[in-house]
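Thread: pyridoxal-5'-phosphate complex, take 2
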Amino acid sequence: MNTETVISKFQRYVINNYSRYPIVFVKGKGCWLWDIEGKKYLDFTTGIAVTNLGHSHPAVVKAIGEQSRRLIHVSNLFYVEPQVELAEILVKHSFADKVFFCNSGAEANESAIKLARRWGRVNGGRYKIVSALGSFHGRTLGALSATGQKRYHEGFKPLVGGFKFVPYGKLEPLGKALEDDKVCAVILEPIQGENGVIIPPEDYLPGVRELCTKRGVLLILDEVQVGLGRTGRLFAYEHYGIEPDVMTLAKALGGGIPAGAVLAREEVAIHLTPGSHGSTLGGNPLAMFSGCAVLRTILGDGLIDNAARMGEYLLERLKTLGRKHKELVKDVRGKGLILGIEFRSKEVAKEITRRCMEKGLLVILTQDKVIRLLPPLIVSREEVDYAVGKIQESFGEVC
Ligand SMILES: Cc1ncc(COP(=O)(O)O)c(C=O)c1O
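Output below.
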């Protein structure tokens, strides 16, 4: 098939709920992708923070191959060996005592919301959850109800009740919201990725932690996008010297095989009792063994340090570019390998995105005005230079 045939078959057979770029990828290796016409692209989207090790990383390919020959699926009616291996790695490298596995970010947040409610029920009959405006927690009805962006709610009401929203990055309104003694949890992203790479002030998360502790409320951190090395630490909360009570992961966890997880402290985790929650495919041997390879590679190959170093270098280069093009660029920000270039106009942001893609650099346009860059954690200095060169060329053409 060629691009045209694939697109016309999509229009005939696939529900049209995404607006897609007219590119069909057929091959990936490291930081690079090839389309069906043979054109090569540098992938700074990583399938939206999924392929953190790059495409077809040998450790992931090996794990999937070995495990698929051994055992692809058994249900959670039985004990699953790779599931406990991955849980052990996650527990040993985080605040958590226990892990529940599922298949996606939305499902992980859905599960965390249910867990918080079960915990709240026996801790004062509390059920309300405070979330942030601008947040993104997923598309299932519970996760969507926790998402603080009206445009995603359109046409899906009534949503799940019991969610309250406060401005992101501000402690005072959160403190006020927590005066309600029916609140059982706060759910937040350490960085709002989908909202345009919004990085809160340094004292925000420590302040949130303090408020939650004071009010006896659970702190749920959604690290679906920023977890697993992306910010230059294994988990973003490590930057702030705090620990959550519950954390959700997905995206990069399975190395491209769907996997999600809820990590929790023991006294919270005990509230998901047998039969209270579940997922047929969650924790399945293939995804879990792939996840073990992902974690071992991130931890063992110095990828977290690389993310910090390359992130700093890319940020510096983009800031220099932004300063040169103040008429186009409003702000450049980032932490590790999640970065955003905020433009002054939607039209320019769209045009730069289009030109980057045309030149062979894949970036994500988010919230209409922000180009989000999510390079793989294996990215090299030469690849960063290549990307900056393409962005620079695109700026030059649009000016
Ligand atoms: C912070 C955050 N939480 C949850 C989700 C939803 O994850 P999924 O698409 O795997 O359901 C996303 C997806 O972009 C996300 O960025």
